[in-house]
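Hi there,

I know you've been waiting on this one. I reran it after we fixed the sequence typo, so this is the corrected version. Both the input and the resulting structure follow.
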Amino acid sequence: MSAKSNNFRSIDILCSACLCKLYKYRKGGRGSLVKCIPERILADYTKGDLHCPECGQEFAREVGMGGRTVFKIIGGKVNVKGMRRK
């Protein structure tokens, strides 16, 4: 692991349509949220699928990246609470 891998913060990922809480997630780095690594999800409110439990909107797709599965966020489908603004 790199030296900056300890720079994690806890964020809430919300559905942009109904503002329902989807994940509590440990985000690393300063960039925007592009993908979710399943090992970093602290709490999953979606029953394991990649759809909002309230409105049913798909917010991510399962993608193989670097030999592991990650959840690629679909642009505009989620809001993030707990990240600093640039």
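Quick highlight: Residues 46 and 53 are 6 Å apart (CA to CA).

Best,
R. S.
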